[in-house]
Amino acid sequence: MTTITDTSKRPYDVSIIVPFLNEDENLEQLYGDIKTALETTNKTFEIVFVDDGSSDGSVALLQSLATSDDRIKVVEFTRNFGQTAAMAAGFKYAQGRIYVAIDADNQNDPADIPKLLEMLDQGNDVVSGWRKNRQDKLFTRKIPSKIANKLLSSVTGVKLKDYGCSLKAYRAEYLDSVSLYGEMHRFIPAYASMAGAKVVEIPVNHRARTKGQSKYGLTRVFKVLMDLITVKFLSSYMSKPSYLFGGIGSILCSLGMISACEVLIEKFVVGTFAHKNPFLLLAVFLFFLGVQLILMGLIAEIQVRTYHESQGKEVYLVKKTVNL
Hints:
The structure is a single chain. With 324 residues, the chain is of the alpha/beta class. Strand 2, helix 2 and strand 3 form a beta-alpha-beta unit. The protein has a 7-stranded mixed sheet. Helices cover 46% and strands 13% of the residues. The relative contact order is 0.12. Helix 5 (138-156) packs parallel to helix 7 (220-237) and helix 8 packs antiparallel against helix 9.
């Protein structure tokens, strides 16, 4: 049985997760802004900086800051593993009851963090930032992002205007059971929603980058699309893969049978010999491909059952129990 994480005994109210790559020009200002924002909330906090293989002076700067403030934590990677890996490491090492993720480039405004925390206090489980007045380039960032957000909202069923905004707050118990791969950090609200979390979105301030270089580009589009397919499969068919494979296989078998009927009609009505009719080959191909997919679905079903039974994992998440 998989149960929701008990976070009541953790030492901090809030963990700020900051993945970064070569941001030595921005980190000191970011640290000061986060500290100023959090100290107005009367909540205990830590800042977990995750170095994703920086080659500048970022780590040395943070080590210096950490000598005077033990709330600064640093996780250093051996090389660049990507933002999703850095985010996952931050969540793993964090010791807060609430996780707040934020970019290190100072485009997200730490002054918005208290607003996110206030929304959590109102009974929400995930609060996502929406860069309503986004300060980025139109054609390479804003337009592709707008298209992607509509697609992601449609496929995942979690309606957000800005999946790409890193500034988000999460109740830790909904993330501790999530494993992140690829470029899937942007899908965390969808994963949390699958676990039963209540997800909301609020407008946040977005500032233009003034220091350092952006690490994002259009090359991520393909990765995001592939991860989107994975998320859709996990959300809709993870526990019943036979529904996907069997459904597609049944459609192909039906098309094969229709093609076979067309071959018979042309044979007995028009007089066309079957070996001269291309629909005969199409009928055989579609029917056997459909059978293969149906059998693949059954094999996948067995693998899913083996996965859950061998590891003692269920296909649900228990929030609480009574008298156990």
